[in-house]
Amino acid sequence: MPQGDKSKYSDKQKRKAAHIEESYESRGVPEQEAEARAWATVNKQSGGGEKGGSASRKSETAKRADRKDSARRAAATRRGQSPNRGSARDRQQSGSTSLSAMTRAALLERAAEQGVRGRSRMRKAELIAALS
Known about the structure:
Radius of gyration: 20 Å
Number of strands: 0
Number of helices: 6
Order of helices and strands: HHHHHH
Helix content: 55-70%
Distance between the termini: 51 Å
Shape: elongated
Low-confidence stretches: 89-96
Mean pLDDT: 80
């Protein structure tokens, strides 16, 4: 069983975890693995057990965005792509994106394409300067 006390979870979260666990088990995932995956999914979608105050909860919009992003990454993985790389069209469009708007990982990838030496030890600002 996954670590942690489940008493802090709402009834809705417990029902959701049970449903997800059943789904995994029906697809042949071992019971312990299914339970671990189910609680990990509940934690990702709702931020864990019940929390006091509205400031500590994710908005429905934020949860929806997280689910959409997760689904997009899963689909990319099924297609055999790295989830962060996207399609060829996306990569072509990223050429017009300013370097400062890119993540360090994306800058490292571009630096590798251009053969920048010492890129793995560079900070984001140094990568931007090297690519400029």
